[in-house]
Specification:
Four copies of one chain form a homotetramer. By secondary structure, chain A is mostly helical. Chain A contains ten helices and no strands. Chain B binds a DNA duplex through helix 3.
Chain lengths: 193, 193, 193, 193
DNA sequence: AATGAATGAGGCTTCATTCAT
DNA sequence: GATGAATGAAGCCTCATTCAT
């Protein structure tokens, strides 16, 4: 199969997949995705060799987007807490504004169709941050947990927090703050608090 | 009187469903489930009117089992931290020993097929604990978060912790401890720490 | 299989079959019929060896009932037209008052499941009348058509008429009269009109 | 451009449906129809979205064909009786030559699967003729019956007649004539006879 | 490369009938 | 005899993928 010509179409398919997956879960038919993307059913398969491939690419694309969002305007010189708050804030804002993307990312994260390799790569989204942590931990600002463990906590608690924000929009701001506060106490040493 | 409907068969189907769902995800065919349960395809539908019904019943049954596990030997008179540690411990032990059940419960939790009602009921598993929290919060032992928020954090962090325990069995004990420690710092007031 | 004990149950099943067939057509499941009849699914098969058997028995039973209705108060000594009008009237009255029975009879009449033998027997419902015709024809009161042909016309035109009566209840009486009038002109010799 | 949808295949499926329905009634499985049509099972559903849709389309197609047959060489300038005889003749000839089509049309006419809308449309097959009747009635050539009533009688009596023709092929011609004669006397005023 | 008709395996579910109780 | 759970063969339909155009 030759290199597909149009990057636009690839994007269109991925975006359509988000819509349809958000609505129908993994049972989303490729035909519906193609239709929403404005391409023929067969065309989808020139851009993605199989549905599984499409799902994996989508997963990676979402992870990459999220990573990019978190790294945008990253306060490299601020203190650790500020850095983490930036990441938290970026993730939550993205997740709240793009609920379908968040939903689909969560879906795919537990899907049988996402290969171990994809999950591996996806996890590297957090690598940069993890690297920062490595240093900070040794400085005694953070509890002595593996950086990946800390990063994952941030993800898990932020996800949870977003759920509550959506459930009770009137208290969204408080959840947003409380969530980060809880996370920070979970991972920082008492001195830093 | 005709043959009575057998509770054993119902259990067999639910257990078979766990196996097959753990392996294939929601795409698990009812035929495979029936076969593994040792009943005819049609029999499955005398116990569960549809696949959706089966999944919802399974979800509720898992939630109920988990709740029971957590409530077993519950240290009603111990201090709050000990109580929470009990719940944490019970959940993690169950999850580690029954990895398929844990996997399936996670899957179903994000499934489109589980009705809002089921999720509602399932959530009440944590109600008892949540009620305890209600009191404790007012005593100033816990940060001023909604009890459900705290309960959900416990669940989320325990889940996360189990993931790491499975990933690095050699450090399982440390993760188990660190996980709870992190959770406790996340939700308790400084004084209590 | 021994002779079933209760004639009541047999009747109940036949009556239930009428209800369910009227609503669902031939796809009416035996289980629904049994339920409505207030007997167990299996019991149905002690009264009728198969669904096909049930349908055939029902068909015959309806034909027999219709025949009985038509023969009730039959004006043996009246003139031919009056006799026919009696039959017409009896049929139409029955059909209008028992729309489900009429519907089911029509359904079964075109069903693949009704054996040739049943149809043969069912046709004899009209035999008595047909026999009368045999004589009358030779008297020159009726056109020289086979009696069965005449009898069938009566049935067909009465059916048609009932359809219109149901469709336009406000003109029911007129259709009823016109229908018979048309039939009578169709089969009688000019002299008799 | 992809392969265009083939009118031939659509026809093949409709024709196959006639064969299988004539033999098995409405229980005719779509798989048998597809096989006989020489297409894959799934293909049937690209031409007809469901079995019900197929049956309705088939019903309409048969009605349309019948209408066309009746209107071919229609003697517009002949007298009323000749016109009706033409219609009668056309219908009976078609029905005798295409017994399966006739059988299936009769089946579908009483089927639960044919929508009211389809029946509505199908009925318009007779509209042209009915319109003619409207005028003729006012001229006193026909009895004062609603045109639709008269048209339906023609259909019913012709159907009946065909049944006898098939039953007793040796008397087919006589039935054919007698049938029309009966119909004509049923609907025309004495003067015209 | 793009299209969408064609394919057919496989899924969920129904249901007539059997048979253990 | 009555019951209704058990059975498994079909049935309708979906859908990932292929391929003729």
């Amino acid at each position: 199969m030759a290199r597909p010509r149009s990057e636009d179409k690839r994007e269109a398919i991925l975006n359509a997949a988000i819509e349809v997956l958000a609505e129908l879960g993994e049972r989303a038919p490729t035909s519906k995705i193609a239709k929403l993307a404005g391409v023929a059913e067969g065309t989808l398969f020139t851009y993605f060799s199989s549905k599984e491939e499409l799902l994996n690419q989508l997963y990676l694309s979402l992870k990459a987007e999220l990573r990019q969002v978190m790294m945008l305007h990253y306060p490299l010189t601020a203190d650790l807490k500020a850095q983490m708050q930036h990441v938290w804030q970026a993730y939550v804002t993205w997740g709240i504004n793009m609920p379908k993307k968040r939903k689909v990312m969560a879906q795919l994260s537990t899907s049988e169709q996402i290969t171990a390799e994809s999950k591996q790569i996806g996890m590297q989204s957090f690598c940069d941050m993890t690297n920062l942590l490595q240093e900070q931990t040794t400085l005694g600002l953070l509890r002595d947990y593996p950086p990946l463990f800390i990063g994952s906590m941030l993800g898990a608690l932020a996800d949870l927090t977003m759920g509550f924000m959506v459930q009770e929009p009137e208290n969204a701001d408080r959840y947003q703050e409380s969530g980060f506060e809880a996370f920070w106490h979970a991972v920082s040493t008492p001195i830093t608090s």
